[in-house]
Design brief:
By secondary structure, the protein is α/β, with parallel strands linked by helices. The protein has one domain: Nucleotidyltransferase, domain 5 (2-Layer Sandwich). 42% of the residues lie in helices and 18% in strands. The chain is built from twelve helices and nine strands. It has helices spanning 37-40, 62-65, 73-85, 93-101, 112-116, 127-144, 158-167, 171-188, 209-215, 254-281, 292-301, 303-309, and strands spanning 2-10, 19-28, 45-46, 57-58, 147-156, 194-200, 222-226, 230-235, 242-247. The strands form two sheets. It has a seven-stranded mixed β-sheet with strand order 5-2-1-6-9-8-7, with helices on both faces. The protein has a two-stranded parallel sheet with strand order 3-4. Helix 3 (73-85) packs across helix 6 and helix 3 (73-85) crosses helix 10 (254-281). The longest helix is centred in the last third of the chain and has 28 residues, at 254-281. 41% of the residues are buried.
Length: 320
């Protein structure tokens, strides 16, 4: 058996809300290492919403699947169905965070909007739909020999992100470091198998050998290719050889697409918590997605309430 792994993030550009990074790992028969999982799982998974059937899960780049203000169902149904296939059936927001990040949810207590918020899940989808989709996935996994092995995420809230930028002045380097650390934890949890990893490019850079060598110091990183469209690296012993690719538009790879959607779903839930808190305290306040221009408007609108509550900027505002 081999593992196909994808990573992606949501929330790299905003000033408000967390940056969320996710990794998904899929176990496949050796003969399917080079296969397109969209083709292998085509009876239950589609990457294009416009051509999908009602009983299919659309798993694609989250920017294609989710439209701001349109409800979470396009993200929620596939993400929660995939988590169900791993045995996760959390029915509350905080328990989902604990499950997907692999730790307790104590870090959410650092901010009042996260501390107060614990909505029931699913938010915008019926439980029966998610259970049915999960059963179809499980059936197809048995038929093809493919299985989803891991979904793991890390949430970096503004205060933590600002601290990271005091170490890594470059935001792309900070994103790369955090992604590769999460990737390292997932890779180290796997058995002796061939592993293929695909990441989106960080800030458009083409060279990742130094970063990989820092995160995987036990092996010499072999540089196979470094180019604008694709950079490839390999390391590890013959029985556990790892190939890591950094590709533009990497979400065409199913494990990366699911990582993109998981990250976006978790971030949008976090923004619901954030908006709910401030709208309870500022009458008529318009919700925000946290992106730069509107984030400044939102920050001005909550200024008086923020000052009265004694909440520091570092808990709210990402400097870059």
């Amino acid at each position: 058996m081999a593992y196909l792994i994808g990573t992606d993030e949501a929330g790299y550009g905003p000033n408000l809300g967390p940056l969320v990074i996710s990794v998904t790992a899929w176990k496949v028969p050796d003969e399917l290492r080079a296969a397109d999982l969209y083709t292998v799982l085509q009876r239950v998974v589609n990457k294009t919403a416009s051509t999908s059937q009602a009983d299919e899960l659309v798993i694609a780049d989250s920017k294609q699947v989710y439209k701001q203000g349109g409800g979470l169902a396009p993200l929620e149904r596939p993400v929660l169905a995939c988590l169900r296939s791993l045995g996760h059936s959390e029915s509350r927001w905080k328990s989902l965070w604990a499950s997907v990040t692999g730790s307790d949810a104590a870090f959410l207590e650092n901010t009042p909007w996260n501390r107060e918020f614990d909505t029931a899940l699913p938010c915008d989808t019926r439980v029966a739909e998610i259970d049915a989709a999960s059963r179809r996935l499980a059936s197809e996994f048995r038929a093809t020999g493919v299985s989803l092995h891991t979904i793991r995420s890390a949430a970096i809230f503004p205060d933590h992100w600002n601290d990271l930028l005091e170490i890594d002045a470059n935001t792309a380097d900070a994103l790369a470091d955090e992604t590769l650390q999460l990737l390292h934890a997932v890779v180290n949890s796997l058995g002796d198998s061939q592993i293929i990893i695909q990441c989106d490019k960080f800030g458009g850079r083409n060279q990742y050998g130094r970063l990989l060598q820092q995160v995987f110091p036990e092996y010499l990183i072999e540089i196979v290719r470094e180019a604008r469209s694709l950079s490839i690296y390999r390391w590890g012993p013959k029985n556990r050889r790892v190939e890591c690719r950094f590709a533009a538009n990497g979400e065409n790879f199913l494990p990366t697409a699911l990582a993109s959607m998981t990250s976006k779903y978790l971030r949008e839930l976090a923004m619901r918590a954030f908006n709910h808190f401030w709208r309870e305290r500022v009458p008529g306040l318009k919700a925000t997605a946290g992106y730069p221009v509107d984030a400044r408007r939102f920050k001005r609108d909550i200024e008086s309430a923020q000052r009265a509550l004694g909440i520091e900027d570092r808990l709210i505002w990402r400097v870059r």
